[in-house]
Amino acid sequence: MTTYDDRASLTDLTATVERVRSSVEGVIEGKPEVVRLSLTVLLAEGHLLIEDVPGVGKTMLAKALARSIDCSVRRIQFTPDLLPSDITGVSIWDQQRRDFEFKPGAIFAQIVIGDEINRASPKTQSALLESMEERQVTIDGQTYELPSPFMVVATQNPVEMEGTYPLPEAQRDRFMARVSIGYPSADAELQMLDIHGGVNPLDDLQPVAHAHDIVKLIEAVRGVHVAEAVRRYAVDLVAATRTHPELRLGASPRATLHLLRAAKASAALSGREYALPDDVQALAVAVLAHRLLPTAQAQLNRRTAEQVVQEILQSTPVPAAPHQSGLTMGRGYGQPPRRL
Fold first, then answer.
1. What does the alpha-carbon distance between residue 299 and residue 305 come to, in Å, rounded to a whole number?
2. CB count in 10 Å sphere of residue 79
3. Which residues pair with 249 in a beta bridge?
4. Model confidence over 213-259: pLDDT tens digits?
5. DSSP class per residue in 306-335
6. Which of 46, 158, 160, 285 could form a disulfide with 41 if both were Cys (CB 3.0 to 4.6 A apart)?
7. What does the alpha-carbon distance between residue 5 and residue 219 come to, in Å, rounded to a whole number?
8. Nearest CA to 4 among 220, 221, 214, 218?
9. What is the pLDDT of residue 158?
10. Which among 260, 204, 273 is positioned nearest to 14, based on CA atoms?
11. Which residues pair with 291 in a beta bridge?
């Protein structure tokens, strides 16, 4: 059993994450909130879906995050002719040994970049389901464990683009968060021309953290305290999506778990050993919106899942911190301070 003395301290976490953040922001200019969300998902043991129009830096963000950490990285270019065995691997008959030998696929890496994931058929996309949820792959009745840490960073173009398939609901639910990079500001785009005009900044990007450091930081995030009031607040937000009249599919219990894990990681990134309702609120749209399906009437009214989540945030009561002698809201809703 891991003890708090074995875990990385919040100081170590902040220092390591700051190095990774600076490294990624050297490539992705003017999007600090996107970089922070990427690191939050990494420390929360989740997977990230980056959705936006072509050319805004989706693959660049995924590559920058992967190269900033000294770990194994594999890239999969999803195409209509990609087979599930190209992702998971295949057993090949070895004539000399007279036995089948397993050849691992591209999923056997610590960070897997799935580029344009929605250009492959749903059959191929389903090859990721077991690995993303259980961190293992089963081939011909044999189960193979995936390395730790393990993170899938997938990019996709909007469904309206030519040659794309909508991600199945089960696939979207595997992703902890979805983020859109968006177009850069004029100043950021001008800076990008200066930096990217002559060289590729990825070529000079060096790892600033090791894989075992990330594993320790993940252990530290697991130890972040979440009071019962904050947990119930997360449950109330997710439950509201299941009864909202403009949604025909609400968020799953997995979404509640992902929201809580992301809130703990966000608290740790802020230097706190306790999560607050603010952490849950800040991540609710990114964690919940991509799992929801609006009704046909809502789509006709041009209502988006993001707008529905924002309304739920405004209508759901936020828990108040209990007033205890010698304790404030900064103690994690009545939780005494402790060292991670």
1. 10
2. 14
3. 293
4. 899 899 989 999 999 999 999 999 999 999 999 999 999 999 999 99
5. HHHHHHHHHHSPPPPPP-BTTB-GGGTTTP
6. 46
7. 11
8. 220
9. 78
10. 273
11. none
